[in-house]
Amino acid sequence: MYGLYIPKTEYNINMFNYYARVAEDGTVQPETPAEIWTDNKIHDAFMDVLDDMTEEQWAAARECIYTELTISMMQMFWLDRED
Q1: What SS3 state is found at 32?
Q2: Cβ neighbours of residue 53 under 8 Å, at least 6 residues apart?
Q3: Structural domain for 21, as ranges
């Protein structure tokens, strides 16, 4: 069977949980440095690709983007370091 693998590290688990929180409630704001960095990178990429979008449109799309990230991570095989 083929698939994508992701190490089951504390960082990846925390990011998955953050993605899921934003997917559930688009008003959730990043708190940790990793969350802030990720949110800024996704925001900037979104605004670069869709340069005529407004911040209000970003807020509406943000929840969908994080939902997709959550679903993607749920489809990966999570490997413990011992595996």
Answers
A1: coil
A2: 46, 47, 61
A3: 5-79
26-39, pLDDT tens digit by residue?
Answer: 899 999 999 999 99
Beta bridge partners of 78: 6
C-alpha distances in angstroms, 76 versus 3, 16, 51? 7, 11, 31
Crossing angle of the two packed helices 10-24 and 33-49, in degrees rounded to 10: 60
pTM higher than 0.70? yes
Q: Tell me how long the chain is.
A: 83
Domains identified in the chain, total number: 1
Give CA–CA dist 32/45, Å, rounded: 20
Could you give the CA distance from residue 56 to residue 73 in angstroms, rounded to a whole number? 27
Q: What is the pLDDT, as a whole number, of residue 1?
A: 44
